[in-house]
């Protein structure tokens, strides 16, 4: 299934007013399990840093929800959010101007080519690398763009059922993915090849998270892919499933998993 048309439709609905977009961001923060894991890591990274003038790269910013969240933690941080989609970048710049978030800027860039040496204290890559074939080139560019001691935080599907692939004869649930998921040792080796020396990786989306993902993402996306009329039923659907997803997300984000369909990876320059 192609996910981008559905994402575009959602964006058109929630981009109508700044209030709707803020609501959209808050709903994504609650509903998307990856956000629970990413926010947890970012809170840990930000301790003692909110009064410092730091620079952050949101590498593959998408809707811009992570830039929004980070820009609210400290007005002293300067955030550059890059994405390949012109329309999405323009929408995000317009929204951030409307709400007065002057410490964030969006730009059109290709991560395979983009490099800004020794510029960033933190780089963020959330559900991006599964879309890019030339992943080592991207890791090299981000490594070069980080300052000494800077950290790269990655959220991406694993090879333990990521992209809803559980056997060799299955294909990714999301057509835009160029890989079904990373082996935990593979991604660490690729990061070492790119120049990173200290690397930490752990699984996300254990059993609770996999159930939550099916309820909150897979089934609604499948239905939206069949008919946009399902948009009218989404509020009722989530009214029933949302409380269960919140509990499952909490358990997944606060427990350790021996395996999982997602990976959270941190690498330092």
Count of the domains: 1
Strand content: 15-25%
Rg over CA atoms, rounded to whole Å, is 18 Å
Indicate the CATH architecture. Answer: 3-Layer(aba) Sandwich
Task: Please summarize the sheet with the most strands.
Answer: 7 strands, mixed
CATH class: Alpha Beta
Estimated structural class: alpha/beta
Please write the string of helix (H) and strand (E) elements.
HHHEHEHEEHEHEHHE
Mean pLDDT across all residues, rounded?
Answer: 89
Number of helices, counting only DSSP H or I runs of 4 residues or more? 9
What ranges have pLDDT less than 50 throughout 5 or more consecutive residues?
A: none
Number of strands: 7
Beginning-to-end CA distance, first to last residue? 37 Å
CATH structural fold name: Rossmann fold
Cα shape: globular
């Amino acid at each position: 299934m192609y996910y981008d048309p559905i994402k575009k439709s959602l964006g058109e609905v929630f981009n109508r007013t700044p209030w709707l977009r803020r609501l959209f961001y808050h709903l994504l923060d609650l509903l998307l399990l990856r956000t629970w894991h990413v926010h947890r890591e970012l809170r840990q990274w930000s301790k003692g840093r909110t009064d410092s003038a730091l620079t952050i790269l949101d590498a593959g910013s998408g809707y811009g929800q992570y830039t929004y969240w980070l820009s609210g933690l400290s007005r002293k941080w300067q955030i550059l959010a890059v994405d390949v989609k012109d329309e999405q970048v323009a929408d995000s710049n317009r929204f951030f101007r409307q709400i007065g978030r002057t410490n964030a800027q969006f730009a059109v860039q290709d991560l395979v080519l983009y490099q800004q040496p020794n510029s960033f204290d933190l780089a963020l890559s959330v559900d991006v690398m599964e879309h890019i074939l030339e992943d080592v080139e991207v890791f090299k560019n981000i490594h070069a763009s980080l300052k000494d001691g800077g950290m790269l935080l990655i959220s991406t599907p694993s090879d333990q059922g990521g992209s809803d692939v559980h056997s060799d004869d299955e294909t990714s649930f999301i057509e835009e993915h160029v890989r079904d998921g990373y082996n935990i040792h593979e991604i660490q080796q690729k990061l070492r090849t790119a120049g990173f020396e200290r690397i930490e990786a752990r699984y996300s989306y254990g059993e609770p998270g996999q159930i939550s993902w099916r309820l909150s993402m897979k089934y609604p996306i499948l239905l939206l892919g069949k008919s946009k009329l399902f948009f009218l039923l989404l509020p009722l659907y989530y009214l029933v499933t949302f409380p269960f997803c919140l509990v499952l997300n909490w358990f997944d984000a606060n427990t350790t998993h021996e395996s999982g369909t997602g990976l959270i990876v941190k690498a330092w320059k």
